[in-house]
Amino acid sequence: MSTARRSLVIVGAGPRGTGLLERIAANAPELYAGGELDVHLVDPHPPGAGRIWRAAQSPLLWMNSHAEDVTMFTDETVAMAGPVRRGPTLHEWAGIDGRVFAGRRRQGAYLRWVYEQAVAALPPGIRVHHHPHLAVRVDGPRDGRQRVWLQGRTEPLRADLVVLTLGHLDAELDAEQGALASYARTHGLVHLPPDFTADSDLSPLKAGEPVLVRGFGLAFVDLMVLLTEGRGGRYEGDVYVPSGREPVLYVGSRRGVPYHSKIGYDWTGERPPLPRFFGPAEADALLARPDGFDFRRDVWPLIEKELGFAHYHRLFAAHPERTTVAWADFEEKYAVADPVSLPALVAAAVPDPADRLDLGALDRPLDGVRYPTPAAFQDGLRALIEVDLARRHDPAHSADLAVFLGLLSVYGQLVRLGDIGSWWHGFFSFLASGPPGPRLRQMLALSRAGVLHFLGADMTVTAEDGVFRATSATVRGSVVEARALVEARLPHPTLRRTRDRLLRELYADGAVATDEGLLAVDPADGRLLDRSGLPHPRRFALGPHTDGRGAGAFTRPRTGGPAFRQNDAAARAALTFLRELSCRAAA
């Protein structure tokens, strides 16, 4: 191997960039022993924590996972070629209760420590340099060194390889949001676009004034916290005591309900043997289809079958008194049942409808439901949330946790299929990535205190007569007016509307955008694909802006972690490429 120093630029030094660096450290002794390499991390935010997990944010904001369910380290369940290097979960590292929802600043400290450990584990010939700048452009020939241009610097970083490990991206407004924002400017209204809530300027939302909020997921939960406790309110048991500085929030969305609560009990006993109906063989068959596949027609039936199997396996194993037949008999018939015969099979074997899995009802609980008045709907949705909280914290319904495990298994296959559309990701988040139970209890308290009002499903917003107006199909004839509108959701990670100049330049330069606007990558190692389908030899991308995106920000221990597998494959491909460059130079 040549003694010339090679150069690798990683754009994005948050969790994904840190995870890649950990895999480089793990694989370098095998693939780059004795080699000289400069690793340049480009990110205006601190390495490890990055933008989302930085220390400079409200201490009121929590992680959305139990501390015991967050790890940055691989284990033997990860199907990868590189070595396993074990390390502590967040709760082991911090010495806290594993069931705690830790603050984001504490997670940021954990990520910084992981970063420092990864740097310390690198062989002596590999050095890391952090550049606190934005990367604005990557150029260079396919078969030559790349140039990475940084904002505020006149000379580029020169790289043998570039890896994009970008996290959440800002985006230009879509046509509807743009029209609402323009109306707001003209009429002196407030329109806050989709954003990472901790970055939003909430000061225009005034005390006591109504605010329409569109979006009922995790971005809304952050908004709720910052506008209540963040403005001096407090909870006394199940009662919210206002500070008087809160606005009055009117929230709605497509579903009209908050995400399902995090499950509040631990798994015991045998796990469902997953995958069963949607595993590597089924994914291979879908990928091999010469005419491609349709998600709803070809993939969703496999997912339904898999999730149903996980659900009923657990129900029969842990709660057999609520079934009428032996598991072996049910399983045999379930395996061959089609969508037409399946409901009758389930109804005969599982008498209580509450024990049957109905994914449609879980996804859209307000479909077809109508309330005569807004007050009646407030009572109705509070009751719905209370039922969800009770069920999600009762191990008598542990089949729900089995479905969660099934969702993780399914995601492990879906990342191989590329861009499958946005519906699945929203469904997964709604069912499996909802808020901690305490946040929903706070939501109930705010509702009872009159600080929070529910609008309903299929919320529509119009701008007319100098105000914003919101309506919903759930409450007949209800119209709410306000001078402020918040779009409580993250920007969609699309190349066509991203504000990230680097990605826009890549797209203009020939990088492929999928139908959903994601960066197309080679599923084998994350190399960027061009419009002829060829992988770029010197450019990689990992993360939510690619069609290899996975479930959630972090990996639960012992779940196979697709992100770990992707990081390992990219690290090994990069090190192998760099080693071969050095060997050719030495020849």
From TrEMBL:
Per the record, the coiled-coil ranges are none
Q: Output the InterPro entries linked to this UniProt entry.
A: FAD/NAD-bd_sf, HpyO/CreE_NAD-binding, L-asp_N-monooxygenase_NS-form
Which domain of life does the protein's organism represent?
Answer: Bacteria
Q: Name one Pfam family in it.
A: NAD_binding_9
Q: Identify the SUPFAM superfamilies for this entry.
A: FAD/NAD(P)-binding domain (SSF51905)
The chain positions of domain FAD-dependent urate hydroxylase HpyO/Asp monooxygenase CreE-like FAD/NAD(P)-binding read 9-168
* Disordered: annotated segments: 543-564
Give the PANTHER family listed for this entry.
Answer: BLR0577 PROTEIN
What is the protein name stated in its UniProt record? FAD/NAD(P)-binding protein
